[in-house]
Amino acid sequence: MNIAKIATILTLTAALGACNTMDRLASVGQAPVLTAIADPTTTAGYQPVRMPMPEPIADTYQANSLYRTSAKGFFKDERAHRVGDILTVVVTIDDTARINNNTQRSRNSTNSAGMGGLFGAAFSNATGAAELNVDPQAAIDFTSGIKDAGNGSVNRSEALETSVAAVVTQVLPNGNLVIEGRQEVRVNFEVRDLIVAGIVRPSDIQANNTIPSTKIAEARISYGGRGQITDVQQPRYGQQAMDAILPF
User: Fold this and answer.
1) From CA 78, how far away is CA 233, in angstroms rounded?
2) Coil, strand or helix at 130
3) Which residues form the signal peptide (predicted)?
4) Rounded CA gap, 202 and 204, in Å?
5) Is pLDDT at 79 greater than 80 in this prediction?
6) Angle, to 10 degrees, between the axis of helix 3-26 and the axis of helix 237-245?
7) What is the pLDDT of residue 239?
8) Are 198 and 169 in contact, with CB atoms under 8 Å apart?
């Protein structure tokens, strides 16, 4: 990375740091502002979900029958099935991973070469090997060795159990539902965000209009916070810039 790029990054970092400082000074003594409720399909960066779909089946009725081919059930219930409907997602995450790896490798090699007879005598006279007490029979000697050792371990544990109401934002051609839900809780000067999004099958929605998070395909679950505590835990912009630039 040349000096011009480094100077540009430092300048932008300083500008962002100044803006962030002004924002923080302006919000001194005030609680974090909650996000306004809005249609998620109108937010910047929203992309409708497109997945491989089977051929659509025409909706037909049989004579003297109340059943239709596109019906998901004979009796109507109150479970979410249309855009705008609400269902409750029960988020349960309890993951534990432990991995230990040990690697050792070593290699030793010894090579020697000498010259005898006429060539040995010529070598001794040309290099003065006889005066230095060097045996021309073993005039060249190579010894090499390589030894590597590596240890690695992963010990991770995550636990989260909560629930959040989500809204059906899209119905896919095969009947699956695209859901998205967001929950914000403010306690004193700290806001906790819980975001859940993904694709669910209507048949996985339980009778009480809830669905476990393990039944969500392409699940995107985010749990974090913002406020004074989170701000203190984060390194300053200058430190983050130096971590990205310095190679050591």
Assistant:
1) 44
2) coil
3) 1-17
4) 5
5) yes
6) 160
7) 75
8) no
Q: How buried is residue 9: exposed, middle or buried, by Cβ count under 10 Å (0-12/13-18/19+)?
A: middle
Q: Show the tokens assigned to 227.
A: 């406020």
Cβ count near 115 (within 10 Å): 16
The token pair at 229 is 């505590």
Contact residues for 90 (Cβ-Cβ < 8 A; gap 6+): 163, 210, 211, 212, 213
- 224 pairs with which residues across the strands? 193
* β-pairing verdict for 140-171 and 177-187: antiparallel
Nearest CA-CA partner of 200 in 77, 49, 45 = 49
> How many angstroms separate the CA atoms of 13 and 16, rounded?
5
183: exposed, middle or buried (Cβ count in 10 Å: 0-12, 13-18, 19+): middle
List, in order, residues 6 or more apart from 98 with CB less than 8 Å away.
153, 154, 155, 156
Tokens at residue 9, please? 């990054």
Return the structure tokens found at 98. 């432990």
The radius of gyration of the chain's CA atoms, rounded to the nearest angstrom, is 35
Q: Which residue has the higher pLDDT, 141 or 117?
A: 141
Strand partners, 157: 96
Comparing C-alpha atoms, which of 145, 140, 137, 211 is closest to residue 181? 211
Arithmetic mean of pLDDT, 145-168? 80
Among 93-102, 133-142, 224-233, name the one with the lowest average pLDDT: 133-142
Is a pLDDT exceeding 80 seen at residue 70?
Answer: no
Tally of helices (H runs) and strands (E runs) in the chain: 4, 6
